[in-house]
Design brief:
Length: 419
Amino acid sequence: MEFLHSTSKQKLLIVVTIAIALFTVIPIVYSFAKDPNFLLKQQQPPSQINTIIKLQNDVVTTNENCDIFSGEWVPNPEGPYYNHTTCYAIPEYQNCMKFGRPDTEFMKWKWRPDGCEDAVPVFDPWRFLEIMRGKTMAIVGDSVSNNHINSLICLLSQVEYPMDTSVVPGYRFKRWTYKTYNFTIATFWTTFLVKSRPNPTLPRLGDDLFDVYLDEVDERWTAQIGDFDYVVMSSGHWHFRASIYYENQTMVGCHYCQLPNITDLTILYGYRKAHRTALNAILALENFKGVMYLRTFAPSHFEGALWNEGGDCLRKQPHQRNETQDETTIKLYNIQLEEFRRAEKEAKKKGIRLRLLDTTQAMWLRPDGHSGRYGRLPEAKGRSDCIHWCLPGPIDILNDFLLAMIEREEDKGSLAQVR
């Protein structure tokens, strides 16, 4: 009898053990089957998991007057969240640490909005990809936009690397797909936002001269973005290049063309006209159900001389917030604001979601974050790059802002606003 009693106790123990194991394993297996990145998520620090912004009555719960784009950079000893050895997507000219940049403090800052510090949390790649499950995003612009895309891919590499699903060769029109999330990013290269081409005939010494058709859309991107869920459009530094301006297929003037008998209308004329044409193209899209963001100008920080005359960017600290922006940056930024507000009125009438990704102040305060002379081998000759940004570096904030805005859009639906 004692033997039978002992055997029964052993059987009961086995049954209990199996039951406990099943109750422990089944939820994990179910979660993994539902989301293959489930186990990776458990490694995310708690501080980066529970930072999702929630809206109540169209305002952020932390501060109803929060303007996430007004603030200052504060030290962040926990950064960066990737580096040149963990992310393959860093191009050579943005790979500052590979090419020997000696200081690392430029990677250890984060943005703190005024009065609402938690409104722009550290970028959460799991949260971003979950929101983007089954969606598409297009980023439209020039090489600074490519800089932005590379930052996003590196931040998301903590979760998953995308597959290159491009349909044309080259880097100007690429697509990447995150298979686990069925999320696709596309890049559309456009230097002036409007139709343009190198001018092959007019004689000019020095840099290239471009024909810019200020009233004609660049159909390479405008004809393809109608089905995207999110579109980020920007334009900037190419407008500084020497250009012949056309309207109604007729030459109306130029910017810095240095040609006789042609009126110099200045960069401001071309910048305004190009933005107006591009925004009008958005307003003309039929059945566009996505969200369009206009990202404001990301300034360069050449000091000591012009970009082509030995100018450099050697600062090791951010600007103080009271540092005055250069006059041209202020004027270009104001043009973007004015054209955005004009288009926004019409967008509201048509039910188009047009938003402002107002990044100029944050990027102006970071003269320390450019590639400079560290986008090539030390012995290689060339100009310092004070336009593009080291990766990791300050440009990662564009994705912090973008996620904060998308969360507001998703949490409150089509009427959510950032400001």
